[in-house]
Amino acid sequence: MATRVADPAELLDPRFIESLAHLRIVARRVPRGGRFADQVSSDLGSGLEFKDYRPYTPGDDLRAIDWNVYRRMGRVFVRLFEELEDLPVHLVVDVSKSLFAADAVRGRAALRSALALGAIALGQHDAVGVYPFSDDLSVAVPPTSGKGRVFGLARAMAAIEVGGATDLATSLRRFGHLRVRRGLCVIVSDFFDPRGVEALREGLRSVRHRVLFVQVHRASDAEPDLTGDLRLVDAEGGPSYDVSVTADVLRRYRESYARFQAGLVELARSRGAGLVRVDADQPVVPQLATVFESGVLRT
Question: What's the pTM?
Answer without folding.
Answer: 0.79
